[in-house]
DNA sequence: AAGGGGACCAACCGCTTCAAA
DNA sequence: GTTTGAAGCGGTTGGTCCCCT
């Protein structure tokens, strides 16, 4: 699967070369076509590619003071960058625990399964792949895995078979998706904003393929594109189970106050996220912690799927 | 050898979420 | 309960590299 292997040394060399070639002029003009004014109030913040010196300053500062308070970091570190830019650079490129290099086939499959479960929640997916960043996985998805799935006849958004053969593949490739017909819950569509997933997956979670009729089919036939092999035992819930997800059509409509009331009246269940080490709000919206140490899961919102 | 086009990926923007005031 | 600002996230852009013709 590797298309372009790049060693760290090569990457550095490439980076240095690139930095050399990039002058102030290009830096200034680079974003000329893009939207609103920068997030930072400073007119004199640098943009574009980071220089080696900037990288070193950022690394040195974070080594000395740790991460945090990105807003004030640039000034403290002597960088003419906005905090967001510093954070991004650190998270996506400079962090020492980053793993560079190609994704393995196992990584591919894991990403595909996680995407089937979580949708475009790249940060959550990245959380299951140590050393990988959300940006990296997002790029990798868009450049490799999408194509891989399309070649298998699978819609990368819905993870379901494309109907209509080549024409459907072409449609998917052009950003169109075919309708779902198999009744398997699809991951949240990207637009509008994907639904917040309610469950976070630890790295050791095993996936078992549910078949169309709800039976496990982990050893089943294999040519057909497989739905995500999710074997999440959710029997931990206390009290009656949550209401089943509504249809996508229902999900599309904005909740009325009556719906919101009903939502509030739904029973609570134990939030797995708490035990999985997911930060508050990262995989669910629950906030409270019971005296017994459990956080309670806010039931799925309209249109949310697990 | 040169040019074109696709692939790759760093970095940006805009939006949402969250917590403090 | 409301406001505000920082942090974080996802979508998108555009420069560079590489392969093919």
TrEMBL record:
Myb-like domain boundaries: 42-94, 95-145
PROSITE patterns listed in its UniProt record: HTH_MYB, MYB_LIKE
GO BP annotation list: regulation of lignin biosynthetic process
Compositionally skewed regions (Pro residues) per UniProt: 185-195
Feature: compositional bias, Basic and acidic residues: 15-27
Keyword Repeat included in the entry's annotation: yes
Biased composition (Low complexity): 163-183, 248-265
Location (main, coarse): nucleus
Residue span, HTH myb-type domain: 42-94, 95-149
Compartments it resides in: Nucleus
InterPro entries: Homeodomain-like_sf (IPR009057), Myb_dom (IPR017930), Myb_TF_plants (IPR015495), SANT/Myb (IPR001005)
Keywords: DNA-binding, Nucleus, Repeat, Repressor, Transcription, Transcription regulation
Pfam families per record: Myb_DNA-binding
Assigned GO CC terms: nucleus
Region (Disordered): 1-46, 155-265
GO molecular function, one term: DNA-binding transcription factor activity
Tree of life domain: Eukaryota
Name of this chain's protein: Uncharacterized protein
Organism in which the protein naturally occurs: Urochloa decumbens
């Amino acid at each position: 699967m590797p298309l372009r292997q790049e060693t760290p040394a090569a990457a550095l060399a490439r980076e240095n070369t690139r930095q050399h070639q990039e002058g102030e002029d290009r830096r200034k003009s680079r974003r000329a076509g893009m939207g609103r004014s920068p997030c930072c109030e400073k007119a004199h913040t640098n943009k574009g590619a980071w220089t080696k010196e900037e990288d070193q300053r950022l690394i040195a500062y974070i080594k000395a003071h740790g991460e945090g308070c990105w807003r004030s970091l640039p000034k403290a570190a002597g960088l003419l960058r906005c905090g967001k830019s510093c954070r991004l650079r650190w998270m996506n490129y400079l962090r020492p625990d980053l793993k560079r290099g190609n994704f393995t086939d196992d990584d591919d499959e894991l990403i595909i399964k996680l995407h089937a479960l979580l949708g475009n929640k790249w940060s959550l997916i990245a959380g299951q792949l140590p050393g990988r960043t959300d940006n990296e996985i997002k790029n990798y998805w868009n450049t490799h895995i999408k194509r891989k799935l399309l070649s298998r006849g699978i819609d990368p958004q819905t993870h379901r078979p494309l109907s209509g053969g080549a024409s459907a593949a072409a449609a998917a490739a052009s950003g169109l998706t075919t309708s779902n017909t198999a009744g398997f819950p699809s991951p949240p569509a990207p637009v509008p904003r994907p639904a917040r997933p309610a469950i976070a997956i630890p790295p050791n979670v095993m996936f078992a393929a549910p078949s169309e009729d709800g039976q496990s089919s982990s050893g089943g036939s294999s040519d057909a594109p497989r739905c995500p092999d999710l074997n999440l035992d959710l029997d931990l819930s206390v009290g009656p189970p949550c209401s089943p997800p509504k249809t996508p059509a229902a999900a599309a409509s904005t909740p009325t106050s009556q719906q919101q009331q009903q939502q509030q009246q739904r029973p609570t269940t134990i939030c797995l996220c708490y035990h999985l080490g997911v930060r508050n709000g990262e995989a669910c919206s629950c906030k409270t912690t019971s005296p017994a140490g459990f956080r309670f899961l806010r039931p799925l919102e309209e249109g949310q799927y697990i």
